[in-house]
From TrEMBL:
InterPro entries according to UniProt: AAA+_ATPase (IPR003593), ABC_SmlMolc_Importer (IPR050093), ABC_transporter-like_ATP-bd (IPR003439), ABC_transporter-like_CS (IPR017871), Mo/tungstate-bd_C_term_dom (IPR008995), P-loop_NTPase (IPR027417), Transp-assoc_OB_typ2 (IPR013611)
Keywords: ATP-binding, Nucleotide-binding, Transport
Domain ABC transporter: 2-236
Protein known as: Iron(III) transport system ATP-binding protein
UniProt GO molecular function: ATP binding
Lineage: Bacteria, Pseudomonadati, Pseudomonadota, Alphaproteobacteria, Hyphomicrobiales
Length: 355
């Protein structure tokens, strides 16, 4: 188990990470998610040991590796890292690149050859052992980097946006690859991404960072359907955040709100009290019905459906998916099947609520 306790990292006046505590169970796939500059890479580099904590502590299986006056170097932490840039040696073959960490660790030739062979097999590159990185595609290079991480037998694999440089088709194939390797190897993966679809697809746990602080750490389904605050709600998934007024504190996890002249009942965050609230409404929770009068503002063709932005009577906007595109200005009757009520904060939703 990996445990971070009150970890902060400052660079002069910049607070890159602010009092982050979290635990990662053995065999988990934790996605670190958040907007650019929120501290994801810093957190990964602190775990790897490439950076020192300013305060707080990091422990692997009860052994403290970073803390006040203590900094265990990366090579003694039993972690392996996969970088966005692949970081392969251009003058070495694929096999030599993968063997490199083993030769540094003094592993014998015979065992090295066996382990390199297994790692090549695991990532589907058995036929390319003698190639140089320059003669590989981006996806193949990333597989080499992945094999070099796997070959080390480190129980924790740290991945820093490994798919960011790949085109959309390769990303999908490599997503499958990461998922399969996680399942087959039983290792713990900590995976930095700013792509929420990637995080939701791969992770057993998601940690969302916002300006250096941990906003939420939960299963992907929980982060999606019950975001802890408005920054998580805005960052993960599609949908609109609308202003409403809760009529009373929630009871049994539900609350009645006043919204655009109606009083629907929605699921509610435990921190909600009576008064102004925000409501996250996902497009799949909105359908044609007769609860809310609305008017079509715009549509975007998405292949399998059209994403329609519609304006409610009070001027707030919702999104929904429809099989065909109504013309702008068309009157629509809508129903909202589901909403997630978040306490109102100083931070107000985007103008009009839609994204
Ligand atoms: N070596 C450094 N010196 C000064 N500031 C730094 C340093 N490294 C990171 N920072 C700052 O710390 C904050 C967090 O950076 P970090 O790279 O961890 O964010 P990130 O979430 O990984 O962003 P991105 O998705 O853009 O890679 C940023 O404000 C960044 O400018």
């Amino acid at each position: 188990m990996l445990e971070l306790s009150h970890v902060s990292r400052r660079y002069d006046a910049v607070v890159a990470l602010d009092d982050v505590s979290l635990t990662v169970a053995d065999g988990a796939f934790l996605a670190l998610l958040g907007p650019s500059g929120c501290g994801k890479t810093t957190l990964l580099r602190l775990i790897a040991g490439f950076e020192k904590v300013s305060s707080g502590a990091i422990a692997f299986n009860g052994r403290t590796v970073a803390g006040p006056g203590l900094h265990v170097p990366p090579e003694d932490r039993q972690v392996a890292m996969v970088f966005q840039s692949y970081a392969l040696w251009p003058h070495m073959s694929v096999a030599e690149n993968i063997a490199f960490p083993l030769s540094v660790a003094g592993v014998r030739q015979g065992e090295m050859a066996r382990r390199v062979g297994e790692a090549l097999e695991a990532v589907g590159l058995a036929g390319l052992a003698a190639r140089r990185p320059e003669a590989l595609s981006g996806g193949q290079r990333q597989r080499v980097a992945l094999a070099r991480a796997l070959v080390q037998d480190a129980p924790v694999i740290l991945c820093d946006e490994p798919l960011a440089n790949l085109d959309i088709h390769l990303r999908a194939a490599m997503l499958e690859e990461f998922r399969r390797l996680h399942r087959d190897t039983g290792r713990t993966f900590i995976y930095v991404t700013h792509d929420q679809a990637e995080a939701l697809a791969l992770a057993t746990d998601v940690a969302v960072l916002d300006r250096g602080r941990l906003s939420q750490r939960a299963a992907p389904e929980v982060v999606y359907s019950e975001p802890a605050n408005i920054s998580v709600a805005k960052f993960v998934g599609e949908g609109a955040i609308v202003d409403a007024v809760a009529e009373a504190p929630p009871a049994g996890g539900k609350v009645r709100v006043r919204l655009a002249g109606r009083t629907p009942v929605f699921r509610a965050h435990a921190g909600v009290s009576a008064g102004p609230v925000h409501v996250l409404v996902r497009p799949e929770a909105v359908g044609i019905g007769n609860a809310f009068e609305a008017r079509v503002l715009s549509t975007i063709y998405k292949g399998a459906f059209h994403t329609v932005t519609a304006e409610l009577a009070d001027g707030q906007r919702l999104q929904l998916h429809l099989p065909s595109a109504p013309a702008p200005g068309t009157a629509l009757g809508l129903t909202i099947h589901d909403g997630w009520v978040i306490p109102a904060t100083a931070e107000s939703p985007a103008a009009g609520g839609g994204r």
